[in-house]
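In the design runs reported in the main text, the only information available to the sequence generator was the tokenized backbone. The following block is the verbatim input for one such run; it is reproduced so that readers can re-run the procedure and compare outputs position by position.
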């Protein structure tokens, strides 16, 4: 009987406790990420600060630093979450039945539409990938991986259209650059002609890439790349 009394919690109890702890940790993390989004939406990236973010999330700044060592770490955590959502949006984009070649345009538009619909997250993306943050070539490996993973549904569609690794790299970087440019000049607080023209220009560009690749499926993809174009790591 003594051995029964001294026995520790059963595996099922430990599993249940662990599940509750993980759920609580995820809830706390979600609260913090939501607070970052709200702070950026209300005052912009440069005005967002850890003290305000902590207050919005119901924590002290000191408690927040125990989980996120810097404001940049907070930004990158939100951005990693946003990129995962953009990836899901691209992956679930509707493609016309019987027309798989349309997947590139549908997925690219869905990826861009996610950030267009979430301007605070778009501002964070621009900040981290610009000289105001650490620059495209200086993002951490984890975030760089998350960025490219978010575009995986798009790049997979490009491969189906016949892109070689070299052309795939060029088309992906061109699309990313175009999308960042449109997000940079797009002002969600205004209903301006510039906003509409910028979005339409990106849509036209995406369609033109798809039409070009569909129209010449037999053409070797390497021939479309400039002579001497080197295959390099986008984040080197």
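Verbatim output:
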């Amino acid at each position: 009987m003594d051995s029964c009394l001294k026995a520790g919690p059963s595996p099922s109890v430990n599993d249940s406790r662990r599940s509750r702890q993980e759920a609580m940790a995820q809830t706390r993390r979600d609260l913090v990420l939501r607070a970052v989004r709200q702070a950026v939406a209300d005052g912009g990236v440069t005005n967002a600060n850890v003290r305000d973010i902590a207050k919005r999330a119901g924590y002290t700044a000191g408690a927040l630093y125990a989980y996120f060592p810097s404001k940049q770490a907070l930004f990158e955590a939100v951005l990693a979450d946003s990129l995962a959502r953009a990836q899901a949006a691209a992956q679930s984009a509707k493609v016309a039945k019987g027309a798989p070649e349309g997947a590139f345009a549908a997925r690219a538009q869905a990826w861009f539409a996610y950030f267009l619909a979430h301007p605070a997250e778009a501002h964070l993306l621009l900040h981290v990938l610009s000289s105001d943050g650490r620059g495209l070539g200086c993002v951490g490996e984890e975030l760089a991986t998350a960025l490219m993973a978010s575009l995986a549904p798009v790049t997979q569609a490009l491969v189906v259209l016949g892109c070689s690794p070299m052309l795939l790299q060029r088309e992906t970087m061109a699309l990313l650059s175009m999308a960042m440019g449109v997000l940079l000049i797009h002002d969600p607080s205004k209903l301006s002609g510039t906003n509409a023209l910028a979005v339409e220009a990106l849509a036209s560009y995406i369609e033109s890439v798809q039409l070009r690749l569909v129209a010449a499926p037999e053409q070797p993809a390497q021939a479309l790349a400039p002579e001497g174009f080197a295959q390099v790591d986008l984040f080197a």
